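[#protein-structures] MJ: dropping DsbA family oxidoreductase here for a structure pass
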Amino acid sequence: MKVEIWSDIMCPFCYIGKRRFEAGLAQFAHQDEVEVIYRSFQLDPNASKDPDHDVYGLVANKYGVSREQSIQMHAGLVQQAAELGLEYNFEHAIPANSFDAHRLIHFGAAHGKRTEVAELLFKAYFTDSKHIAKMETLKGIAAEAGLDPEALEAALNSDAYKQEVLAECAEANQLGANGVPFFVINRKYAVSGAQQSDVFLDVLNKGWEEEKPLIILDPSSSGKDGQVCTDEACGIGEAE
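AK: finished. structure tokens for DsbA family oxidoreductase:
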């Protein structure tokens, strides 16, 4: 079973949603048979690499609220994150363009490290207050994930993974994602937002029930041979 998760590195609900999904997955009886793929989405593709505002000022300007109101809004997110064992340090966070960070995720995917890189990027931004648009930050994350930082630098200095990021952002819109996080199960069910873990568990169970293979009953259990046609024979003459 495949679960695709569209998210943006600087989306606070995406990190919370990641943890809640993981909690639901941990309770899923068939968790070892689930492939989880983190997909790219940019909330603000036009964001600067070197921001003019901190997080509080950015949200205050975007929603037309005071800085004090913005701080209060973020305090609620800090509490939600803490309940999941996450540490959010918005007062030191550096909002920046996430495009190259998403390219790093694709670089990680090419080396079997997609999930690890996504986790490290969330932690770098929300907990460690690192500038995720800077090359040195991204190279450090690559090294922490066991990847070659010099190979990453070469990739980011080229056009590598740009089209992959853009294609996934476009695909999210085609699937009806109005925001992130956006979870798609087997391309049949979608869950929008950082829902509680039991919501994710329910949809995983539903997806599994509908995906499980057809069970063929053993005709010998009835005491009679099955009446069936194959490529080589047909049991018409044996019909009662």
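MJ: nice. The mean pLDDT is 91.
AK: one more thing. The first helix runs from residue 12 to 26.
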